[in-house]
Amino acid sequence: MSVVTRAAKKLVRNRIMRSNWLAAFLVALSVVVPSLAWGQGVLIDEREHWRFPRPWPIPRPLPAPQVPTGTYKIKEIAVDVNLSEQIAKVNVSQTFVNTGSQQIEVSFMYPLPYDGAIERLTFMVDGKEYEAKLLSATDARQVYESYMRRYQDPALMEWMGNGMFKTSVFPVPPGAERKVTLKYSQLCRKTNGLTEFLFPLSTAKYSSKPVEAVNVNVSIQSGAKIKNVYSPSHTVDVKKPSSVQAQVKYTATNEVPQNDFRLLYDVGDESVGAKVISYRPDSSDEGYFLLLVSPEVKSEMASIPPKSAVFVVDRSGSMVGKKMEQAKGALKFVVNNLRPGDRFNIIAYDSTVESFKPDLLTFNDETRKEALGFIEGLYAGGSTNIHGALKVALGQVKNEKQATYIFFMTDGLPTAGETRETKIVQDAKEMNAAHARIFSLGVGYDLNARLLDKLSRVNWGQSEYVRPNEDIEANVAKLYSRVGVPVMTDIAFKFDLENFPVEKGNATSRVYPKDAYDLFAGDQLVMVGRYKKEGQAKITITGKIGGVEKKLDFPASLVDKSSDETYAFVEKLWASRRIGELLDDIDLNGKNQENVDELVNLSKKHGILTPYTSFLAEDNVVSPPGGPRPVPLAALRERAAKNLEALDRLDGAEGVEQRRLKGEFQKGAAAPMAGNAAYSDRDGKRQVVQTIMNVGSRTFYRSGSQWVDSRLSGDKQMKVQKIQRYSKEYFDLITKHGKDLAKYLAIEGEVMLEIDGEAYSF
Fold this sequence. Notes:
The chain is an alpha+beta fold. The protein folds into four domains: about 5-265, Immunoglobulin-like (Sandwich), CATH 2.60.40.3680; about 270-300 and about 485-560, Immunoglobulin-like; about 305-485, Rossmann fold; about 590-760, no CATH class. The strands form seven sheets. An eight-stranded mixed beta sheet has the order 6-5-10-3-2-13-16-15, with no helix packed on it. Strands 20, 21, 22, 23, 24, 25 and 26 form a seven-stranded mixed beta sheet that branches. The chain has a seven-stranded mixed beta sheet with strand order 33-34-35-36-38-39-37. It is globular, with a radius of gyration of 28 Å.
């Protein structure tokens, strides 16, 4: 039985077609609000007046008016999506468990998509189909308002303005499970050449405990070649079985979902696909842009150019035992995964340096077998001559003309030969005539992490770290699998903006990553930056494909002022990358006041905490009228400068973990998660902060029993206008300001919020 009848669907479509402004408004809703919910619903207890469940430690500024006798948790969410030519066929399984002491009588409520275009939707509970009633947005609003007044809970506010269907009541005995299944088809929005799929994963936060398992699988099929596949909300695994197929996977365990799952992709016939998204919330300030670049992966591996690679492995005494066996396994993996035509060598070092062959040799079956024999004969013992090993490796590649990579592994401090950090880095840079990328792999905690970061930074590579309890072989395999097949090398970008005066310099600024880099098969470049002026731009990409110089250009549009928060994630992503660059500069070059000040300002504005700015969660940086005075900004900067002295620690768990965390900021591919702020401390342990909340594009600080919008100045707070929750005035605000406001009014507890430049309290 189809829940949405043919007649109802026709009526919705006719109404939309008769009103262009309504159609535009409904289309805009598809991406304006990340918290829009369709596909995953909420159980409503029809008997009791109870607040929606929240998993501890979701902050509860105000106690619930009643202690519920019935509540539930969401045990598992499984989402399978087949996406083809903008049509998403979605299958959602959601397992609920009654965690209360008595039976609950619940209905399942499900907000409709922005355009009402759901096809073949069915609703099942443990295999039994239940009747559902379709409600228009007007009728649904009355239901939403009724539930919010009844439960004294603003959770449903974020769905205001949506139609919905609502099922008949079904029982869930105490301790019992109910598996709800939804199947439907939906038309996805396409803007600026990007197709977007949005799934309301954040609705699972209304659960008494974290969700035990979340699995999202999206299969993309296209008639044209798929280029960029990107999620701004979650770190996903993307595989492309062919040029017209992509498999996207996201998994999590024991998680409280805070963001809806969002996926963007585009298609085209270019050898390198590129897309630009711009976001500018304030026309008086520089805007933000995101550039996505993906190389085409050829199906014929022979068409991919060969590379030169040198594998440098530490065999000092500290590597004895399990570490050495794992290192040998890692070397065997990379040797077995070289391609015909690649040039390679292996260098093992302790006090002395031993090379498999005097010079690089061409990979074939014979040289592969010889290399495996050399690896088998490696044994650990002696000191650590890092300088000597780099000198030999760089000397062997100085005449290489093709893409060249050095994979450098160590588990210790330099104890033989040249041991000075600055001298080792300086000599490596001077000897690198081939412009080789150095990928440093630090094993364990007894090493100089800053040295490895410097080596990789000045030699256009990256540094990775393997914790003592992690597998060396698995980490090396993961790294080599990602960078083993270079598709486009020596990439450079240029932005030309129409009518931008030459005397004003570059039209863009603070672009990350900022150094030369290569793109690899299956990889994607995520570049962020600021732009100074709106307008039409031409972006030129230069680089080598198959050893041949290539020049590609494509148009981009940079907006003057964004009309909504659709792409607000671009600002967050830039802020996270910028924080990583600031930490890297402070780490490698020493701190200065300008860097410290900017770090504090970015952390405070965007709610992105670091181990050095975590105190922002404790201090009253904003205060309600009559509350404690905020800590002066100068004091916050002084505390950050003091905390940053921890970067002087080069080795040990703290020294290594700090570099890992810094790298996470620098390489982050998705915007920081919404919800409560979180950061990893200097021991690598995840810390969830209860006094900072990120919702949409805004940051809220807890002050007493109230959440205060960080945009509000002290003067505005003194002129706050009080609005009674669940009053007519309260609900009218959402009608006037739309869905952008709804997600802020849905915050639980007292909220002080900026609306049209004024302060309101709810």
